[in-house]
Amino acid sequence: MELLSFSAMFRELARVQSNFRKPPAHCTVKEFQVSMPNCVNPRERESMLQDRYSFTNVSQSAPSRFLRHFSPLLLALLSCLVLALAASAGQLTTPQDGPNRLELSYTLEMERPSTHLLQVEISVAKVEVPVLRFAMPVWAPGRYAIYDFAKNVQEFTVVGANGQALPWVQPDKQTWAVNTSDCGGTVKVLYKVFANDLTGSFSQFDTSHGAINGASVFMYLPGNKPDPLTLTIHPPHGWKIVSGFSMSPSQTTFQVPNYDVLIDTPLEIGPDCWVKDFEEDGKTFRVAVHSYPDQDGDADNRSALVEGLKKIVHSEMAMMPAPDFNHYTFLFHFDPGLPMGDGMEHLNSTDIIVHGKLSDSGLSQALETAAHEFFHLWNVKRLRPTGLGPFDYSREAYTRSLWFVEGITTYYSYVNLLRSGIWSQQEFLDRLAGEVRALREAPGRRLMSAESSSFHAWFFDRSPQMQETNFANTTISYYNKGALLGTLLDLKIRSATRGEKSLDDVMRLMYRKFYSSPAASYYLRGRGYTEKDILDAVNQVSGTGFTPFFQQYVAGTVPLPYNEVLAKAGLAVLVATSSQAPPSLGVLVEPVDTGVRIFAVQPGGAADRAGLSRDDVLISVDDQSLATESLADRLSIYTAGAKVPFEVERHENRLFITVQLDPPRPDEYSITELPGATDEQVKIRQGWLNASQQGPAQSSPAEAAAGRFRNPTSF
Ligand SMILES: [Zn+2]
Ligand SMILES: [Zn+2]
User: Fold this and answer.
1) Does 402-574+686-714 match 273-377 at the fold level?
2) Which fold has domain 273-377?
3) Which residues contact 699 (CB under 8 A, 6 or more apart)?
């Protein structure tokens, strides 16, 4: 997915947090008993069940709020009923992916764009079981967050072969269980989905387009995800369909091998999509652009976009084995009105949403995101950790390897922007220096490892936050640290092999070993890898032992040995403090009307020692308003160690807190050449930085915008 700057992510988290209230008071269930015949209409049964609850220790007064709060319990109870119903017939559909294939036909109706309501019909033939379950995913691969796409499902109905209504219940919030005893062999489910989010995870249907991410729209049948299906789309008149399913924009019916592929193929359906094809290494690549508004200057930059993509595709295809598809689609949206951009990897397409205009900064953002998402077609869409395919869409899929999935992909997006000539060596080194700075300025680097950050992604990968968190001080980005680990691994392997091998060889070895091998399930080729498999591959390619490296820097929080490793290429990270750097206050702030609001206090920093707190609004410093002058400018007039009085608004009261300022924080990070480098150091450096034509795929077979919100500012 897209590389979102970590600070921007925290800013977004803080914004989202403010939209949620505290959870309701604690309640306990006193008693309930259930005994009713299965012939009761499901809706009546649900009503009867609700009537049988009684509660104690409830502080709320409205009865309807009881039921809302206890909906998980109610749903669990209903689940038991459904299971009992099915088990009594002895033919319960198994939750595992089993051999009982069904004939599945999905239809997407797009009748009224102004309502944002998509209508889905799922027709199931040859039904021989007494219960069929239909479920909405709670998450979509590529974004490690529980989104509960069922939230936007409405007007669910289901009929049998003769149009007769069939009874159904919801055993949980994302599943609809249909009693098919009298269906006549055919079940037809109909529902609507509200869709008005243009992101890499959700869908949007409006008068400008349908931008469809399948997990947010299409239900699956647990136990039947492997079954092939047909998708038919009825777009509004004059709208065309662009997707990885087909190169023909007029094709409206698609044969899809299974549900996983259905939701791994985003759809752009609209009247205004600009499309251009090009060829590379025997494959066809398509660039589709939808811009808001239709911008002056787009035409020139659309050409520049295509030319840049050609270079990226050429560079990454030269590095990795040829992928197993005939065509690949880049779907772009450019919209300066969005809150933030996004990017999402898919099997043979990518969905890139740029917060900005193609006619200005949007071009470089688009190319950088494309270099990242295109590399994902190898790293995670095919070469994948165990747990990431086949997917369990009903709950979190944990992996400790997102530092490899996302961080190494980030590293190779930089490498290939360099190799393709889109970036200069200086731009490449500057970006890596920026990554060094980002990790150095993250207090969480002392608490959270790269593996732990990967495992806990479900807490902070654009997840809605139901309570205040201290993530700004306790977490790190697996994109950021993973990219730095990639840098260090690459240079250490190059050094250990005297320039003969590199991390490229690790990627190719793993791809062949885990993807280009017999399929372990219905899902794609090959099998998933474990964390130890990464270590083994690095050891094999380098011919040395990387166990301590992985223990300290991947599984541990030992500071990364930048200069020890960069020295192997005659390079070093230089850290300096500019003369303009203000003394450090040790806070992250954002502007508000009356001053600046603190949304994170750095542990042990000047503000922390003085007792400043999250949510304090700094009104003035030394009687100088912070509403009209920046905090950085105000702090710049003091020297380190100065005791400075801040007027602070806290809980609608004003108070004064004096802070003794710390020395300025380093603000200049660079990677530069060491004088007097040996021939061997120069060889490693040149092999790393001049690798534009290096390492073809041998003989083997075949995320961007900083957002509307300004990044939080650190002082
Ligand atoms: Zn990614
Ligand atoms: Zn569009």
Assistant:
1) yes
2) Neutral Protease; domain 2 (1.10.390)
3) none
Q: How far apart are CA 321 and CA 330, in angstroms?
A: 20
Work out the angle between the directed axes of helices 478-496 and 503-510 (0-180°, nearest 10).
Answer: 110
Backbone phi, then psi, for 120, in 5-degree steps? -115, 135
pLDDT tier for residue 414 given thresholds of 50, 70 and 90? very high
The tens digit of pLDDT for each residue in 544-556 reads 999 999 999 999 9
Burial class for 557, CB neighbours closer than 10 Å (0-12, 13-18, 19+) = middle
pLDDT grade for 94, boundaries at 50, 70 and 90: very low
Residue burial 635-660, b: 16+ Cβ < 10 Å; e: rest: beebeeeeebebbbbeeeeeeebebe
Domain ranges for the chain, please list them: 6-88, 101-271, 273-377, 402-574+686-714, 587-660
Q: Are strands 327-334 and 283-291 parallel, antiparallel or unpaired?
A: parallel
Helices 478-496, 425-440: inter-axial angle, 10-degree rounding: 120
599 vs 587: CA distance, rounded Å: 8
Give the CATH number of domain 101-271.
Answer: 2.60.40.3650
How much distance in Å is there from the Cα of 710 to the middle of ligand 2?
25
Q: Which has the closest alpha carbon to 317: 654, 693, 632, 712?
A: 693
Which of 96-100, 347-351, 552-556, 626-630 is least confident? 96-100
- Distance from the alpha carbon of residue 109 to the mean position of ligand 2, in angstroms: 17
Mean pLDDT of the chain: 86
Q: What's 402-574+686-714's CATH class?
A: mainly alpha
Specify the fold of 587-660: Pdz3 Domain (2.30.42)
Choice between 24 and 136, residue whose per-residue pLDDT is larger: 136
User: At which residue do the structure tokens 């595992």 appear?
Assistant: 96
DSSP per-residue letters across 178-239: EE-TTSTT-EEEEEEEE-B--SSSS-EEETTEEEE-GGGT--B-TT-TTS-EEEEEEPPTT-
Q: How far is the CA of 439 from the centre of ligand 1 (A)?
A: 18
Closest ligand relative to 334 C-alpha: 2
463 CA → ligand 2 middle, Å: 24
Tokens of 697: 């795929």
Give the residue from 371, 363, 340, 364 showing the smallest Cα distance to 353: 340
